[in-house]
């Protein structure tokens, strides 16, 4: 049974692979045997990811890409085809709140800020899914697409543009799975909760993280690496009958009724 989790002979493209969740998923896929194309805007970051993969005995290349530009996404997939001859797995992870965190009132929210957030967090996923599925259909052997959303999409948030875009990604996933299923292409979405973004910078931040962790039923915040195994499972033959599904990985935060950032507890779950 465990051999179905191996990805030997598979090729994967991961966007936003220079840090955080994207880097964790890229490294996990490589550890499972996949050959990687690591994409992000910042070349130095994906060079580091590629370096860590190759030092561990894997194979990976770095392709700087702005995923808000559909032509660049098409070239990213073409680079994968030129290098490895095929694409088996697309992980559309790149995204971020960015402009959504402005202090505008809802009725004064500017068009360009809204469009910027949608471009990075929704349209980019469509570009990745479209480019990957095109290559998969042409090859005729199916494939796997994994989108990444956010727990904020499942609750209200005053920084509304970001959860709006991520909610669209969840809907995109369900529709794409329905359309691409007959082509043997599976499409699922990972929905992370609050995850620690690197070590705390000072004692106050460490204390804040401890306090936030106590709001989660498992008693702590997540770590980026903990999302890697889920990505491997969804990319592997172990999940070959799973498509169109949303996978929440948040330590039980949403089940416990926490707010979208884990900062509004209904209960302190510390024993």
TrEMBL record:
Gene3D superfamilies: NAD(P)-binding Rossmann-like Domain (3.40.50.720). The keyword Oxidoreductase applies. One of its GO terms (molecular function) is quinone binding. InterPro entries: NAD(P)-bd_dom_sf, Sc_DH/Rdtase_CS, SDR_fam. Keywords: Oxidoreductase. Pfam families: adh_short_C2. One of its GO terms (biological process) is fatty acid biosynthetic process. Belongs to the short-chain dehydrogenases/reductases (SDR) family. This is Short-chain dehydrogenase. It comes from Entotheonella factor. The lineage of its organism: Bacteria, Pseudomonadati, Nitrospinota/Tectimicrobiota group, Candidatus Tectimicrobiota, Candidatus Entotheonellia.
């Amino acid at each position: 049974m465990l051999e179905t989790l191996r990805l030997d002979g598979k090729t994967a493209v991961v966007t936003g692979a220079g840090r955080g969740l994207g880097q964790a998923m890229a490294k996990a896929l490589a550890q499972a045997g996949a050959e990687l194309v690591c994409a992000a805007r910042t070349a130095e970051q994906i060079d580091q990811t590629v370096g860590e993969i190759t030092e561990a005995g894997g194979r990976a290349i770095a392709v700087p890409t702005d995923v808000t530009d559909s032509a660049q996404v098409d070239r990213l997939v073409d680079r994968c085809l030129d290098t490895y001859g095929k694409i088996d797995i697309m992980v559309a992870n790149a995204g971020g709140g960015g402009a959504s965190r402005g202090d505008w009132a809802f009725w004064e929210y500017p068009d360009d800020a809204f469009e910027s957030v949608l471009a990075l967090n929704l349209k980019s996923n469509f570009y990745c899914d479209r480019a990957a599925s095109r290559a998969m259909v042409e090859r005729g052997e199916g494939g796997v697409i994994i989108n990444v959303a956010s727990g904020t999409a499942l609750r209200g948030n005053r920084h509304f543009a970001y959860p709006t875009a991520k909610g669209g990604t969840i809907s995109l996933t369900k529709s794409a799975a329905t359309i691409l299923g007959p082509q043997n292409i599976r499409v699922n979405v990972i929905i992370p909760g609050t995850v620690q973004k690197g070590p705390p910078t000072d004692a106050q931040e460490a204390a804040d993280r401890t306090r936030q962790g106590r709001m989660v039923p498992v008693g702590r915040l997540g770590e980026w690496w903990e999302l890697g195994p889920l990505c491997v499972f969804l990319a592997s033959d172990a999940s070959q009958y799973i498509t169109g599904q949303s996978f929440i990985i948040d330590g039980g935060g949403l089940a416990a009724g926490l707010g979208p950032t884990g900062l509004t507890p209904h209960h302190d779950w510390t024993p």
